Amino acid sequence: MTGRALIGSLIGGLIVALLAACGDRGPAAEFWMPAELGAIRSLWIGSLPPLPPSPGNPVADDPRAVEMGHRLFFDPRLSANGAVACASCHRPERNFKDGLARSQGLGQTRRKSMSVVAAAYSPWLFWDGRRDSLWAQALEPLEDPAEQGLGRVDLARQLGDDPDYRRAYENLFGPLPDLGDRARFPSASPNGDAGQRAAWATMTPEDRHRISTVFANAGRALEAYQRRLLPGPAPFDAFAEALLAGDQARANTLLSADQRQGLRLFVGRANCIHCHNGPLFANNEFHNTGVEAPGTAPADRGRADGVHLLQADPFNCLGPFSPARSQDCGELRFVKSTGTELTGAFRAVSLRNVADTGPYMHNGRFTTLTEVVDHYNRAQSSGISTDLEPLRLTAVQVQQIVAFLDALSAPLATPERLLRAPARADRVSGHREDPATESAPAASRNTPRL
Asked: Basic and acidic residues bias: where (predicted)?
């Protein structure tokens, strides 16, 4: 064998050996940059902290209030026609939304319903943030003529006339006022229809305060129930847990290649994480995302109006019906209330279970997630803010992000009985919780941690 032939033989053998070695190792492992891993950890449900306190609600985590609020939430008698409950627009089987572009109560609402799952983590409620607690938020639909339309006095009377409600209320909050004098306590509400508002004006300030105190306490019971509505671990969370533990082989079996690429785009080039960050995939801040027609002033001013409604709300953290201390109300005390960027801005919502909860956006404009991602990909200018920039994603990349969003769906980490209307045996006077499973609304229950 000549020298040249010998060299050629050796090189050929080396190439064969290298190819064989590569074949033994299988496909090359995916590489995640440290910044990507940090983002994945921040989105993982294992990073979800315990529920924050509710400064204006002393019974927020009282199991008795949970039971009372559970019944209130599903009770259609808390409406002017006896047919509309909180659960009519916040349906458990739809992740506590209703699947409509505009919710339907006694009339039609201005905006799409929002999920109340994990809403206790947000400092602001409603699309425009016009309430600053779940208990204050729960009050508005009860007397809104387009939703439940129940007079504030009528609600207090319902609580007093029902033996179970009366017992539950008085165990939590003390005696209900005597509402036997109907001339003194007519069907009245400051935010109801014209007749209810006129009747409210005839009541003395002291009686209005008594009724509003009962009203606020009903909201506190509703909040206690809604604080138990928490997200459960989704396929993404199982992937994140395996990846963060260094088991990439297992992680790759938990999300498809398209879902993994969609995740990489979500935390990277597409920058979805700018607004949808943290373990709830939401920063709960306000953004104008160009949903209105280009070149027009927003018909719905969003946060620009919502912040002033918040400040005027008598049930806010600093209001006369809140026992919170001023130092516990920092979000409200230092809220941003001016700026053109508030016009047409709406709260970024959680993307957990988003695949099952269309239509999308505050006005229900988009039917599918593909339409939503394509909207951000094109980045139509709002003419007001600079929240959007064209992403220039391919059609395949758009679908990869949609595939990743599918991996955020999971059953709630909430006892099954709380996801349906209470049976007679479960009503507020009869049910007793199993302290091993339901005594505290710890967000970390059923979630893995490293």
From this structure: 423-435
